[in-house]
Design a protein that fits this description.
about 150 residues, alpha+beta, Lipocalin, 1 helix
Length: about 150
């Protein structure tokens, strides 16, 4: 019984460490979004995801982690770029798609790829994040005043 408890606790600690690593990497998302056509026609200009967002990433079973997401649009209005900064880490985002009130992208954190699927409602972002190692979590955010 003592060995079983030890192994159980060991496995839990390993899992918590992996989740922490994944989330640390997720928070360091710098969003340099994929190139392509955008479909923002369903949103008025103050309801687009373009701007600066305070983000909270909450992996299952862990505390929320703060981050900042900045999204901008290129001069030709066909591509997006952004910066996701979590705990001082920044990464490029890939495969960005913005259609009406949906925002999705991937962030290659080195040892993990994080996939974000978010929805925009008023000045709030909400959705999910999935890591390539199977860890899942929720994401929420609010627009920061500039």
């Amino acid at each position: 019984m003592l060995v079983e408890n030890f192994m159980y606790n060991f496995k839990i600690n390993v899992m918590k460490t992996r989740i922490l690593i994944v989330l640390t990497l997720a928070i360091s998302l710098v969003s340099h979004f994929s190139y392509g056509e955008s479909n923002l026609s369903g949103l008025n200009s103050n309801k687009t995801p373009i701007g600066k967002w305070e983000i909270k990433v909450a992996p299952e079973g862990m505390s929320e982690m703060p981050a900042v997401l900045e999204i901008s649009q290129t001069d030709d209005k066909k591509a997006f770029s952004g910066i996701f900064n979590m705990m001082g880490n920044k990464v490029d985002a890939q495969d960005l798609k913005i259609e009406e009130n949906r925002l999705s992208f991937k962030a290659d954190m080195g040892s993990l790829v994080l996939s974000f699927d978010l929805s925009l409602k008023d000045d709030q972002l909400e959705g999910k994040v999935n890591a390539s190692d199977g860890v899942k979590g929720t994401v929420s955010g609010k627009r920061l005043d500039e």
